[in-house]
């Protein structure tokens, strides 16, 4: 691993950390798509900064311009939604394409063939990270590492300092306001930091892929835990894992580094979606199937209890409108619960089964 | 203006314009349902998710076959929508996060594939990245035919299932109880969005497609409350902005079509939001300013009434009572004068008969007593009168008051200058109409707020 690799991976790690720290709260506050809107809408701000500084890469003006555009986007969406004429999702859906279009038009009219080409707008070029350096305290450091390091630190400070306020404003904005915590201020701070992070990450992962770093790791963590600190930790972990593995894969396959990282984030998400013990599709299906079997078994027991505590399986199935296999499954579940016995096609309720039928909710058959 | 003519003569421009207009129509119609179903951002996710499909179709075919690429994109978007539905069905992840995950993960995969292809040695790949923002200039007649086929399919489905789609969009639960497969119809509408995305891939590209679905529909919604009209307007807006984008980009080299179409459709939306009749924000502002003014005058009249009865009505006294400057108080009194409710009397002001009556009405809607009867007579007269005058018998019917009292009330209305005799009985004067109008507004307000107690003092 040469120094360039280290710089690239370090940049990616910092981008994913900075993004995931904010993303956790965006996902919980159901505002994930604000990151979509902001990441598109900062483009005119960045272009304006390029234009004002004469086409040079200018970090601070770009940050300011994009921060302003980010807040403008948030305000425009809220203004539209509050006018009552357009729902908030539609408001997001029209605001950012407009801003992004203006940005694209500006790029194609004035900045064709300069540093700012459209590919870089979309998926950045993290491979250039080692080449842009700046001198800080006598050391020559990669600009991206310094920039994203500062942003990650800033976001970490924000989350650490305002942890209680963030938590309260996220889970109960009304209570937060009643207690004097100013959830509105927290909201705008979050949006400002999101704009900064988006622009900072813009050069390395591009305007659209930054959404992947903001939303996907927290969404993956959300499927795996119900605790906020664990969710933050898992988000950081998934971000870091995809950064490292995505880089390795991208080099092997000769594909976009940022694109590969986003792909891996998606892979982690789908893995969690399938296999999470808490919310995964497999676990949920298993749980729902078990619940169905339990209900069927209770129904069977209740029906038999009404019929005097015993009955022919086929006859019972017919009465309940079940197929024979369905009835057998229900009987099997009832037998596992010690509620019923099967002898020569005749089902007998055990004393426990009778007790269950008496205790259980009255089921109309 | 040359550009406009060239639409008919220039081969490239004709294709571009046709393709863009086609996208506008299909996006407008399909998008209207998405907006009504609160799925505005689904189009965004669908279109971003189309990118890996395009790339995979290219990898499989080894060449840029337009129809294959479009189908690849549509299928990938459709898969993303299905995955999103699965997330919503099985987990508690919020819908916006589910959308965001599909959008960014699929797009990321698409970017990885795209760069993988670009860095490979297939010489056919040049121009594949044009699907990101679209490049209408490369559209040829065969592309337009493909787009017309796909878009036509979507429009035919909408026409055939119009009633069902309408029901599902406005009240899916009711649709279910009627026996319509609401879930499957919803999924079909989502699939239509995927078709619209396929039509838009070459013109506006995957990144900006969502606006072509959302903005025309949101704009059309401001103009009408009827679904049919909304679909037609939405299609019209979409087509107009598509054409605008095509024409602008043709007017100079290096201008992209898609972004200009988006800017055009956004402008239409902004204008609609501001100026559409009834729902326009500008009219809203004017209306609420008028209402504020009416309220302000009512309050001035009430305060003037109190001063007139209990002290002296002068500019200074009104200013003190209303906590405002003398200039403002004077202008309010002049406004009252202009409406015939007050008039200057030497150094003071006095209320006219009409002003006194109106003040009495304002102090107590909802009370019984003589004023209440007068109010009822006035409103009843305003309702009865349709240009041909009011008869006393009709008024008696309407108010349910004894004949003698109705006659006395009518005389009182005439005395206030609110009514005058006419051949058919008598009719309300302009002032009378205004008073009735204000009174009705006042009663509506009173009905909406808890009952007030007592008068102004």
From TrEMBL, chain A:
What lineage does the source organism belong to? Bacteria, Thermotogati, Deinococcota, Deinococci, Deinococcales
Q: Family per UniProt?
A: Belongs to the ABC-3 integral membrane protein family.
Keyword terms: Cell membrane, Membrane, Transmembrane, Transmembrane helix, Transport
Keyword Membrane assigned to the entry: answer is: yes
Q: Keyword check for Ligase, yes or no.
A: no
* Compartmental location: Cell membrane
Which species is this record about? Deinobacterium chartae
One cellular component term from this protein's GO annotations in UniProt: ATP-binding cassette (ABC) transporter complex
State the annotated membrane topology for this chain.
Multi-pass membrane protein
Q: Name one GO biological process term.
A: transmembrane transport
Report the transmembrane regions from the record.
6-28, 33-52, 58-80, 92-111, 144-163, 175-196, 202-224, 231-253, 259-283
Q: Give the protein's recorded name.
A: Manganese/zinc/iron transport system permease protein
Among Gene3D superfamilies, the record links this protein to: ABC transporter involved in vitamin B12 uptake, BtuC (1.10.3470.10)
UniProtKB/TrEMBL annotation, chain B:
Spell out the subcellular localization from the entry. Cell membrane
Q: How does it sit in the membrane?
A: Multi-pass membrane protein
Read off the InterPro entries from this record: ABC_BtuC-like, ABC_TroCD
A single Gene Ontology CC term: ATP-binding cassette (ABC) transporter complex
GO term, biological process aspect, one:
response to zinc ion
Mainly localized where? membrane
Residues in a coiled coil are none
Cited Pfam families: ABC-3
Keywords per UniProt: Cell membrane, Membrane, Transmembrane, Transmembrane helix, Transport
* Regions crossing the membrane: 16-36, 41-61, 67-87, 99-117, 137-162, 227-248, 260-282
- Family per record: Belongs to the ABC-3 integral membrane protein family.
Protein name (database record):
Manganese/zinc/iron transport system permease protein
Source species: Deinobacterium chartae
User: Taxonomic classification, please?
Assistant: Bacteria, Thermotogati, Deinococcota, Deinococci, Deinococcales
């Amino acid at each position: 691993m040469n120094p360039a690799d280290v710089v690239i991976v370090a940049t990616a790690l910092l981008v994913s950390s900075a993004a995931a720290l904010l993303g956790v709260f965006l996902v919980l506050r159901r505002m994930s798509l604000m990151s979509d809107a902001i990441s598109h809408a900062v483009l005119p701000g960045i272009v304006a900064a390029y234009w004002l500084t004469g086409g040079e890469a200018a970090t601070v003006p770009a940050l300011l311009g994009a921060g302003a555009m980010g807040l403008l986007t948030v305000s425009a969406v809220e203004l539209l939604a509050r006018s009552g004429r357009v729902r908030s999702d539609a408001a997001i859906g029209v605001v950012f394409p407009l801003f992004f279009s203006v940005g694209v038009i500006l790029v194609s009219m004035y900045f064709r063939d300069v540093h700012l080409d459209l590919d870089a707008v979309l998926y950045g070029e993290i491979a250039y990270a080692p080449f842009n350096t700046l001198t800080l305290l006598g050391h020559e450091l990669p600009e991206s590492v310094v920039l994203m390091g500062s942003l990650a630190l800033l976001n970490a400070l924000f989350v650490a300092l305002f942890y209680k306020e963030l938590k309260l404003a996220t889970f109960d904005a009304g209570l937060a306001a009643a207690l004097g915590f100013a959830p509105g201020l927290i909201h705008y701070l979050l949006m400002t930091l999101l704009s900064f992070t988006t622009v900072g990450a813009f050069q390395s992962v591009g305007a659209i892929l930054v959404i992947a770093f903001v939303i996907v790791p927290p969404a993956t963590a959300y499927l795996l835990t119900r605790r906020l600190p664990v969710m933050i930790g898992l988000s950081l972990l998934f971000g870091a894992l995809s950064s490292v593995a995505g880089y390795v894969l991208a080099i092997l396959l000769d594909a976009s580094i940022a694109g590969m990282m986003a792909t891996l984030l998606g892979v982690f998400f789908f893995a969690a979606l399938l296999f999470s013990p808490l919310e995964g599709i497999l676990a949920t299906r298993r749980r729902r199937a078990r619940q169905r079997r339990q209900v069927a078994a209770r129904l069977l027991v209740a029906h038999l209890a009404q019929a005097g505590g015993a009955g022919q399986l086929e006859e019972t199935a017919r009465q309940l409108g079940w197929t024979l296999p369905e009835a057998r499954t229900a009987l099997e579940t009832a037998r596992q619960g010690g509620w019923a016995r099967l002898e020569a096609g005749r089902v007998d309720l055990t004393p426990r089964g009778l007790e269950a039928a008496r205790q259980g909710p009255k089921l109309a058959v | 203006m040359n550009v406009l003519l060239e639409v008919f003569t220039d081969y490239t421009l004709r294709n571009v314009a046709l393709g863009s207009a086609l996208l506008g129509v299909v996006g407008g119609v399909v998008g209207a349902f998405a907006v009504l179903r609160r799925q505005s951002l689904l189009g965004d996710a669908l279109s971003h998710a189309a990118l890996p499909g395009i790339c995979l179709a290219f990898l499989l075919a080894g060449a840029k076959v337009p129809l294959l690429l479009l189908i690849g994109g549509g299928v990938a978007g459709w898969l993303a929508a299905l995955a999103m539905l699965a997330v919503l069905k099985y987990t508690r992840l919020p819908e916006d996060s589910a959308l965001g995950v599909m959008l960014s993960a699929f797009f990321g995969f698409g970017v990885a594939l795209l760069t993988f292809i670009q860095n490979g040695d297939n010489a056919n790949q040049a121009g594949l990245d044009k699907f990101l923002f679209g490049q209408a200039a490369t559209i040829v007649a065969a592309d337009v035919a493909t787009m017309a086929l796909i878009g036509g399919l979507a429009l035919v489905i909408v026409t055939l299932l119009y009633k069902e789609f309408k029901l599902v969009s406005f009240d899916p639960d009711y649709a279910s109880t009627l026996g319509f497969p609401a879930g499957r119809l919803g999924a079909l509408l989502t699939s239509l969005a995927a078709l619209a995305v396929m039509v838009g891939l070459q013109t506006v590209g995957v990144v900006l497609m969502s606006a072509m679905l959302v903005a025309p529909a949101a704009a059309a919604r401001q103009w009408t409350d009827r679904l049919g009209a909304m679909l037609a307007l939405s299609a019209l807006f979409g087509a107009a902005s598509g054409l605008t984008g095509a024409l602008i980009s043709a007017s100079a080299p290096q201008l992209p079509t898609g972004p200009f179409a988006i800017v055009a459709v956004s402008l239409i939306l902004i204008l609609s939001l501001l100026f559409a009749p009834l729902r326009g924000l500008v009219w809203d502002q004017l209306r609420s300013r008028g209402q504020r003014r009416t309220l302000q005058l009512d309050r001035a009249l009430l305060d003037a009434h109190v001063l007139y009865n209990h002290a002296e009505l002068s500019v200074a006294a009104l200013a003190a009572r209303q906590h405002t400057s003398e200039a403002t108080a004077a202008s309010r009194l002049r406004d009252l004068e202009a409406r015939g409710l007050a008039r200057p009397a030497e150094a003071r002001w006095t209320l006219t008969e009409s002003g006194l009556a109106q003040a009495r009405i304002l102090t107590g809607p909802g009370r019984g007593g003589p004023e209440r009867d007068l109010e009822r007579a006035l409103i009843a007269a305003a309702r009865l009168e349709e240009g041909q005058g009011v008869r006393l018998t009709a008024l008696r019917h309407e108010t349910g008051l004894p004949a003698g009292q109705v006659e006395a009330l009518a005389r009182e209305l005439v005395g206030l200058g609110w009514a005058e005799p006419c051949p058919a009985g008598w009719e309300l004067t302009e002032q009378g109409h205004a008073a009735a109008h204000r009174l009705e507004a006042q009663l509506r307000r009173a009905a909406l707020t808890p009952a007030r107690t007592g008068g102004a003092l």
